Amino acid sequence: MRKVCVVVTARPSYSRIKTALDAIDAHPDLELQLLIAASALLERYGAVIEQIEADGFAIASQVYMVLEGENPTSMAKTTGLGVMELATAFYNLAPDVVVTVADRYETIATAIAAAYMNIPIVHVQGGEVSGSIDEKVRHAVTKLSDLHFVATAKAGERVRRMGEAPSSVFVTGCPSIDLAAQVLSSPVTMGDPLAKYGGVGSPVSFSEDFLVVMQHPVTSEYKEARFHVEQTLEAVTSLDIPALWFWPNVDAGSDGTSKGIRVFREQGRAERIHFFRNFSPDDFLRVLLRARAIVGNSSVAIREGSYLGVPAVNIGTRQRNRERGRNVVDAVYDLGAITSAIEKQLSHGPYESDPIYGDGKAGLRIADLLSRVPLTVTKQLTY
To answer: Whose CB has fewer CB within 10 Å in the chain, the N or C terminal residue?
Structure first.
């Protein structure tokens, strides 16, 4: 049996790989080694590990590596600490292959540690484009990796143009779309999200119209994080519709985003907003499907949102140039621009599904490939 170590470091990376974890765990020729690290372990970012355990997964290792600060220096130091701690975990687990997801600084720490230890690396969701430091990290991880399980044909072509051998690139789709497909085909209600997940703020009825807001700091613009979130807060509260607002991630600028939210709330101005730290991936998509629109700068608006046909207002540069469907309207960080974009999407209503990032079978494809594709740390480059 191949020992497959999958590293989950944050809330989004779990939703991006969950169905692959299910498929790997169920595969007769694979042994899943689930390693949980970074913000996925921390309560202030939703304690994703609790959800993972509730979903029935056995956890092989935990790696604490996040330094406080929410600034570029703490991100760089967290990356370095991650390389050290992940190397120890890989030594103890002795996996046959390591799977790393997407484009975060924890992702590149995973790839660096595994590469220097001569462990074959599978990169999920390489070849995409966006803004900020994520763009650099994603392509750096591609060059450190040995196999590439990409979400779209365009992403696969970019990876090949970077010199990666065509035989190492596989268009699997994104596992998060598997979850979206399940929700779309069987939109079971989850009950009252306030009763299930708590949170703070004004009560919002799940049976009424509402917005979903998910806005993260932009690492290259981290000093403007508080101003950015204040513009979105002003826009959302200016409209006659309640909102479910999800807490930002751990990137540089997170402290400014969080402080902007807290001050706004303490001033009594967030009258129709309820704030949450985290939902399970399935429940989040059920809520998203019910929303009139999603607002912010999360890739979920572009990936899962396009498949579900949920109107999306994408703000700022964080998702710049990312492949998207017809459901997305862009806006700059300006009260008037954001308000106008939200009103436009509310007037439009749901969009037709755009299956850009997958067809709902990515998890099964990934497990199948992991069980049979030759594993090597010697690259056959094409340049």
So the answer is: C
For residues 368 and 27, give the distance between their C-alpha atoms in angstroms, rounded to a whole number. Answer: 8
The SS3 call for residue 281 is helix
* pLDDT tens-digit series, residues 227-239: 999 999 999 999 9
Residue ranges of the chain that CATH labels 3.40.50.2000: 2-174+358-372, 186-348
What region, left, alpha or beta, does residue 288 occupy, with left being phi > 0 and alpha being psi -120 to 50 degrees? Answer: alpha
Check if CATH label 3.40.50.2000 holds for domain 2-174+358-372.
Answer: yes
Residue 259's pLDDT band (boundaries 50, 70, 90)? Answer: very high
For residue 340, give both structure tokens. Answer: 């106008």
Half-sphere exposure of 177 (CA within 13 A, CB side): 24
- Within 13 Å, how many C-alpha atoms sit on residue 219's CB side? 24
Which of helix, strand or coil describes residue 378? coil
What CA–CA distance (Å, rounded) separates 17 from 239? 35
Strand order through the sheet with 211-214: 200-201, 273-276, 243-246, 211-214, 293-296, 312-315, 328-331
Q: Per residue in 133-155, pLDDT tens?
A: 888 999 999 999 999 999 999 99
d(CA 64, CA 83): 11
Q: Give the contacts of 282 (CB within 8 A, at least 6 positions apart).
A: 179, 182, 183
Task: Considering only residues 44 and 119, tell me which one the structure prediction assigns the higher pLDDT.
Answer: 119
For the domain spanning 186-348, the CATH number is: 3.40.50.2000
Taking only the tens place, the pLDDT of each residue in 292-301 is: 999 999 999 9
* Strand segments (E) across 240-383: 243-246, 273-276, 293-296, 312-315, 328-331
Could you say which DSSP state residue 241 is in? S
Q: Note whether 149 and 168 are within 8 A (CB).
A: no
pLDDT > 70? residue 118: yes
Region at 102 (left for phi over 0; alpha for psi -120 to 50; beta for the rest): left
3-class secondary structure per residue, 188-207: CCCCCHHHHHCCEECCCCCC
* Position 325 pLDDT exceeds 80: yes
Cα gap 155→357, rounded to integer Å:
10
Residue 259 C-alpha from the chain's centroid? 22
Determine contact, residues 382/163, Cβ cutoff 8 Å. yes
Structure tokens given for 220: 């290259």
